[in-house]
Amino acid sequence: MIRMSRLALFAALTATIAQPAIADELRVLSFNVRTVTGKDGPDRWEARRELFADTIRQLHPDVIGTQELAKEQGDDTVARLPEYTWFGRDRFGGHADEHMGIFYRKDRLKLVDSGDYWLSDTPDKVASITWGNIFPRMVNWALFERLSDHKRFYLLDTHFPYRDQDEDARSRSAREMAAWIGRLPAGVPVILTGDFNTGPESDAHATLTAALKDAWSAAPKREGPENTFHGFTGNPTKRIDWILFRGVEATSVHTVTTSKDGHYPSDHFPVEANFTL
């Protein structure tokens, strides 16, 4: 047995205490909730809302960008997780349809500013549809300030169209978003969450990553499968859920595969990324 003298033990403890604190990381989650209107039987919202909240509770992210969120789902979630609140209009400008709802921890972040715009030729027109889309597509955004150190960052959340023939609309959406992000203050970090309904080989990904980094490829630590959409099977086939960023450092990224008794909180695996501001 190796014995340490009292002097040596004191020196070791002092050195440990003197070490600088680990950087206060920002934990971001992108989570396609899966709409309440789907005929999902045992995977309907009422059957998985507890698991959905438990998944968030286990991860305890600071901020969450969601897609396909109904008001009922948002309210159910914050009722179970009162440390969070959420905001955002739906894609028709009200609260009766799908939202790109943004959740955040009230004890960690302050909402400084927020807004939305539509992915169309008239982005300021609520519920506008162009480019062959069959539903309005939009972006919800926020400027947050971290309460612990008053550092600020933008969070943008979106959901691109899903059909095979929508690739041009997805490319146009990416160009519109890239231009919008390009007008933001250069010194303020930007994080983008979303279900992009296309893979990293796409023109949309190339357009957005011309100025942003993809957490999946940039983070030094990766965990979980690369692909994210699994249709409640647990076997993902496509990486369509991304977290992109600029002005911060990604320390890790995790595709979250939480399940219970063979059921999942959504038909997408959520993606979690940790950042230092």
UniProtKB/TrEMBL annotation:
Is Nuclease one of the keywords? Answer: yes
Transmembrane domains' residue ranges? none
Q: What is this protein called?
A: Endonuclease
- Which GO molecular function annotations are given, in alphabetical order? 3'-5'-RNA exonuclease activity; endonuclease activity
The UniProt entry, under Pfam families, shows: Exo_endo_phos
Organism equals: Luteibacter rhizovicinus DSM 16549
Q: Which UniProt keywords apply?
A: Endonuclease, Hydrolase, Nuclease
* Listed Gene3D superfamilies: Endonuclease/exonuclease/phosphatase
